[in-house]
Amino acid sequence: MPCHGGKAIKPLFLKTRALNLRFVVFVVASVALILYDSGGAESKRLRLVLGTLVYPVQLAVDWPVRLGKEFADGTRSRRALLTENDTLRTRQVLLEAQIQKLAVLQAENARLRELLQSSSRLDDRLSIAEILSMDLDPYRQSIMLNRGLVHQVHVGQPIIDAHGVMGQITHVGLNTSTALLITDTNHSLPIEVNRNGLRTVAQGTGESRWLTLPYLPRNADIREGDLLITSGLGGRFPRGYPVATVKTVMRQGGGRFAQVRAEVTAQVDRSREVLLIWDHPPLDTPPRAEHLPAEEP
């Protein structure tokens, strides 16, 4: 056998003959299997057995591919869901903001309708004014309006809302004015009991919802639930506007006067708009706001 460098060299033709022999064996085996498979029930049973044996191997081979595909599909689905959730969340926020604005507009329209319905029942000249700011300090309760001299507003002019009397103008600027609320401790208002015509004075308490009637004797005909209205005395507030409803009447103790507290009918701490009343011509020499005298019954 030929040698090269001390190593034997295998003949190339021997390897070729071995490959040809294997090819012939495989071809013969394939033809035999084809012929056997086209036979009867035995070939079918053999194919079934072989398929059953090979099935776990097919599953094991296919499992990584299927798992990778499911993972990719799940990732894409999760990204799509996250994107959709972000879009829906943004849309929800926008819709909620629009709903809030709609609710505000509906409430404002309801208040304006109440004011217009209130003004339609009155013979006095009226004008709607918007509240710009509100001061509900216990020692000073007032509001600023967006009406002034250019709108013919004058000192002493009464203001109401859709539910009752709120106060009177104490200072007038060119385009704005300030009104003292009836709940201010320095404000007095001539009133009468709607049930029997009993007259007295309602005094502010510094609380945004309450008045007191400090000058009623103990035997006065007044009871809880009585409606108090403006009496028209003093020449500032026209007669007949609702002021407050009596909530407590106390006659105990040795004092000469009853202790009466009444809740104002106007929404002093919640109104956004008010009505200015022109019941009489403006005063020729209106007093300064800080020296506005209290009205006498």
Automatic annotation (TrEMBL):
Indicate the segments annotated as coiled coil, or none if absent. 95-122
Which parts pass through the membrane?
Answer: 19-36
From the UniProt annotation, give the residues forming the signal peptide. none
According to its record, what are the GO cellular component terms?
A: plasma membrane
* UniProt xrefs under Gene3D superfamilies: Rod shape-determining protein MreC, domain 1 (2.40.10.340), Rod shape-determining protein MreC, domain 2 (2.40.10.350)
A Gene Ontology biological process noted in the UniProt record is: regulation of cell shape
- Residue stretches making up the Rod shape-determining protein MreC beta-barrel core domain: 131-278
What UniProt keywords are attached to this protein's entry? Cell shape, Coiled coil, Membrane, Transmembrane, Transmembrane helix
**InterPro entries noted in UniProt:** Cell/Rod_1, Cell/Rod_MreC_2, MreC, MreC_beta-barrel_core
Output the PANTHER family linked to this UniProt entry. Answer: CELL SHAPE-DETERMINING PROTEIN MREC
Alphabetized NCBIfam families for the sequence = mreC
Q: What family does this chain come from, according to its entry?
A: Belongs to the MreC family.
User: What is the role of the protein in this entry?
Assistant: Involved in formation and maintenance of cell shape.
Q: What is the recorded name of this protein? A: Cell shape-determining protein MreC
